[in-house]
Each structure stands twice: as structure tokens, then as C-alpha cells.
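stage 2 :: seqdesign
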């Protein structure tokens, strides 16, 4: 037992001394290694953050396109409703309003939300 205690003390003191030196036989210290791990961790977070930002930007763009399409559709429906109401009340066709309805429909047709024609 008397010999065991000094040996344990020597081993522990060597372990503490090696942990305090920056490099022992070309091996990185725990501090450097934890720095590398921390850098890798933050890089992975920033890459994940970049993906999250890209996905958020894509969702925002899709939401913008959807609102733009709905706005154009609402404009067309409002003009169409106005045209049909005038036709029913006056039994005549307002040519200027009919052109506006046609332009609104073609504008809606050209937008991104309009379904593509089937290809055969």
C-alpha cells in the first residue's frame, strides 16, 4: 500500500502536467480539441441555419406568388361580376369593361399560379 500511493500520485501528477502543456508528442491538448469541436459544432449550426434561411426564403417567395395570383384572380372576378351585373341590369355590353375583363383574364393566365396546359 505504501508503494501504491506514491505511484498513483506520480501518475496523477504526470497526467495533470501533460494536460497543462499545449502539446505532448504532437497530440493536441484538450483545450485545442474542444476548440476544434466547438468550431465544427458552430459550422454545422451555421450550415443548418443557412438551410433554414433558404427554406424560409422559398416559403416567403411561394407565399408572395400565391398572394399575387389570388389578387389577380380577385381582380378578374370583381370585373367579371361588375360586367355581368351591368349586362343583367341594362341588357347591354360595356365594351370598355369587357376589354378590362379580358385583360385581367389574360394577366391571370400568364401568372405563375395558372396550371400548365397538358402535354400529350
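stage 2 :: out
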Amino acid at each position: 500500500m505504501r508503494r501504491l500511493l506514491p505511484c498513483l500520485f506520480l501518475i496523477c501528477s504526470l497526467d495533470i502536467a501533460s494536460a497543462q502543456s499545449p502539446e505532448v508528442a504532437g497530440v493536441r491538448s484538450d483545450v485545442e480539441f474542444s476548440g476544434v469541436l466547438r468550431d465544427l459544432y458552430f459550422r454545422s449550426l451555421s450550415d443548418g441555419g443557412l438551410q433554414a434561411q433558404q427554406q424560409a426564403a422559398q416559403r416567403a417567395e411561394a407565399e408572395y406568388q400565391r398572394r399575387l395570383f389570388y389578387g389577380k384572380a380577385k381582380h378578374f372576378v370583381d370585373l367579371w361580376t361588375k360586367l355581368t351585373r351591368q349586362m343583367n341590369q341594362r341588357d347591354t355590353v360595356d365594351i370598355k369593361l369587357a376589354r378590362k375583363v379580358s385583360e385581367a383574364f389574360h394577366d391571370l393566365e400568364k401568372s405563375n399560379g395558372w396550371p400548365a396546359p397538358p402535354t400529350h
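stage 3 :: structure notes
- The two ends are 91 Å apart (CA to CA).
- The first strand starts at residue 23 and ends at 24.
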